[in-house]
Amino acid sequence: MPVYKFFAIPKNGIITIPEQYKNKVSKKIKVILLDKNIKKSKKKDNTVHSKSNLLIPPSLDTLNWKFNREEANER
What we know:
Layout: H1 19-22, H2 51-54, H3 69-73
């Protein structure tokens, strides 16, 4: 899917596609709006994460697992 990036100022909720892109877009397009006027918040996330919690790999008890190589390699 081609991507065309441009800045626009909405007028009454309408965004005009620039002339250079009008013949390149189809009748159905996907639109993602990013407001350039909103400044990023410098608040810290209140979720409880520490670096040590994020680096602990999950553990699985595989003692009683039965492994069949042929079954695992079936396509």
